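Appendix C: a fully annotated inverse folding record. The material below is reproduced so that readers can follow the format used throughout the book. The structure is listed first as tokens, followed by the designed sequence.
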């Protein structure tokens, strides 16, 4: 059974950093795992993706150079968020598309965690 559990969210100030974790189980870790975020009333946005299958990482344009995605040798994917910008609170979710290659299109993903909330104050 596929399971994805996010953690690490919270309230931080503008310019600070936060690290989110996604603990994955129930599927091969060669599959791509991606982070998305969704603010109230807005569409789900692809943030970053990592695939052990092709060894590549991908980032949305709004987070490039500030966010870094990584995974350990076990079953956890991390999203390191630096220089956070003030924004309305959003829920960050991780998901897997059960493929070896990445995508930042949420329509490609069928397995999702419940998310962790991130808020950045100015």
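Designed amino acids, in order:
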């Amino acid at each position: 059974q596929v399971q994805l559990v996010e953690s690490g969210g919270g309230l931080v100030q503008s310019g600070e950093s936060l690290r989110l974790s996604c603990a994955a189980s129930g599927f091969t870790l060669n599959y791509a795992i991606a982070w998305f975020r969704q603010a109230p009333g807005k569409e789900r946005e692809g943030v970053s993706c990592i695939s052990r299958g092709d060894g590549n990482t991908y980032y949305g344009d709004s987070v490039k150079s500030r966010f870094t995605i990584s995974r350990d040798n076990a079953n956890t994917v991390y999203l390191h968020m630096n220089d956070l910008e003030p924004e309305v609170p959003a829920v960050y979710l991780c998901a897997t598309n059960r493929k070896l290659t990445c995508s930042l299109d949420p329509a490609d993903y069928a397995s999702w965690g419940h998310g962790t909330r991130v808020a950045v104050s100015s």
